[in-house]
Amino acid sequence: MKQEKWLSLLGLANRAGKIVTGEELVVREIQRKRVKLVLLSHDASFNTKKKINDKASYYHVPVKEVADRFTLGNAIGKEARVVIAVTDKGFSDKLQSELD
């Protein structure tokens, strides 16, 4: 049940326009200090994981590793997504509590 809740919450954040997807866009938004939480798929490549984790660590942004790219993509109504950044504090706090 918890897994379904965080997925629907992510979909709601998407409809509210509070997420950014794509490796380069996420990195750019982290650097602009707009990102509150990063969701990284478990099946992301080593280089992608390292790049996102290093950047998020430097800017003190929490990173949560979740299922796979298809689960992330389905949650927001897209194909497959490897990394998603949440830009809203409310959505970020709720997602973190659901994923812990």
Fold and architecture overview:
With 100 residues, the chain is α+β, with helices and mostly antiparallel strands. The protein has one domain: Ribosomal protein L30/S12 (60s Ribosomal Protein L30, Chain: A, 2-Layer Sandwich). Helix content is 54%, strand content 16%. The protein has helices at 2-15, 23-31, 46-58, 69-75, 89-99, and strands spanning 19-21, 37-41, 63-66, 83-86. Strand 2 (37-41), helix 3 and strand 3 form a beta-alpha-beta unit. The radius of gyration is 12 Å and the shape is globular. The model has no long low-confidence stretch (mean pLDDT 92).
Helical proportion? 40-55%
Total helical segments: 5
- Radius of gyration from CA coordinates: 12 Å
Major beta-sheet overview: 4 strands, mixed
Overall pLDDT level: 92
Strand order within the widest beta sheet: 1-4-2-3
* Class by SSE composition: alpha+beta
**What is the CATH T-level topology?**
60s Ribosomal Protein L30, Chain: A
- Which parts are unreliable, with pLDDT below 50 for 5 consecutive residues or more? none
Q: CA-to-CA gap between the ends?
A: 14 Å
Order of helices and strands: HEHEHEHEH
How many domain regions? Answer: 1
Strand content of the residues, in percent?
A: 15-25%
- CATH-wise, what's the superfamily? Ribosomal protein L30/S12
Tell me, what is the CATH class? Alpha Beta
CATH architecture: 2-Layer Sandwich
- Overall 3D geometry? globular
DSSP strand count: 4
Can you lay out the helices and strands and say which pair or pack?
Layout: H1 2-15, E1 19-21, H2 23-31, E2 37-41, H3 46-58, E3 63-66, H4 69-75, E4 83-86, H5 89-99
Parallel strand pairs: 2-3
Antiparallel strand pairs: 1-4, 2-4
